[in-house]
Amino acid sequence: MRIFVTGASGYIGGSVAAALRGAGHRIVGLYRSPQKAQQAQALGIEAATGTLDDDALLARLAREADAVIHAADADHRAAVESILDALAGSGKPFIHTSGSSIVGDQAWGEPSAKIYADETPFTPGPGRAARVAVNQRVLAAAGEGVRVAVVSPSLIYGPGRGAHRESVQVPRLVALARKSGLARHVGRGENLWSNVHIDDLVDLYLRVLEKAPAGASYYAANGETSMRLLCEAISRALGWDGRTQPMSKDEAIAEFGAGPAAYSYGSNSRVRATRARRELGWSPQHDALLATITV
Hints:
This protein is of the alpha/beta class.
């Protein structure tokens, strides 16, 4: 197939693109600069130069493709609308990448007993309402002749397969530890996040592309840990005997920004990938997150 991938220079999109290319598919990626486009072509990816604001370009690339995987900006509604409009009535697959922070609770380091399966209803916090609205718009396109699906990864770890090989959350915590001389978490760090290895996530995308029904939504998760335990593992890897230090809410916002502090580093995001296992036969194979922490 000819598959159009947005975010093909990123951690998720690049890893998915590499796997699809290895499986014999033709990949078209969207790149913001000619330099990145040239790098993509060296990796065997057909490159188009443009941005998510180029509506006409997105529509053309979507129409020319047999499938579209959107792994760039989860909040860019206009880009999603352009692609969905171009695919309407085609029956082609469109996979939209969201994230499990949609159930984030702004707990500021405190734990939660709430666990979300794929079908569990929830009300998003104000910082994630727009993202959930984009997800709902995507899923509604199942009634417009598009085989849409939404994938919401939890905390991702492991080396990527594309040009961008690092995830976001763990490397940022490592960088903060190096800067501070001590691993740090928001508040008590008892907030819990589900997690998934990048290779297992890539496998899920391939399964969704192959056989997910229109209108399906999948969490991607395989285990969970608290931010305190994650920071303790980082501390040990840096030779600091597991010692950590709390951050106040204000310190976290100053360090990470308001959105990431509230919905990533300070929140609970406990999800279960029950539908992917049941419906697609997804069976993650990689070690748990804490066993992989090296610096």
